[in-house]
């Protein structure tokens, strides 16, 4: 399985862009999305950009990946990782509601 990672363009040179994420800076093939500009957000799979993202969508994906990493490391906190879902409709499923109440 391959996960897409949101990355922000630092500079572009034809079909290659220098992009950054939380883990560092990488050269990204942008031939599938076309020319990009500094500041744009891209969804990158194994070194190739597959989609342009709004900043809000890029940050949502980054937060979801952060929650996944925390869960894999045993540091999952539903109050932090599902903060945007706790008090909205539809509500969290019962098994996650129980975790939120337990942590609160």
From TrEMBL:
It holds the Pfam family HupF_HypC. InterPro entries: Hydgase_assmbl_chp_CS, Hydrogenase_HupF/HypC. PANTHER family: HYDROGENASE MATURATION FACTOR HYBG (PTHR35177), HYDROGENASE MATURATION FACTOR HYPC (PTHR35177:SF1). Belongs to the HupF/HypC family. This is HypC/HybG/HupF family hydrogenase formation chaperone. The gene is hypC.
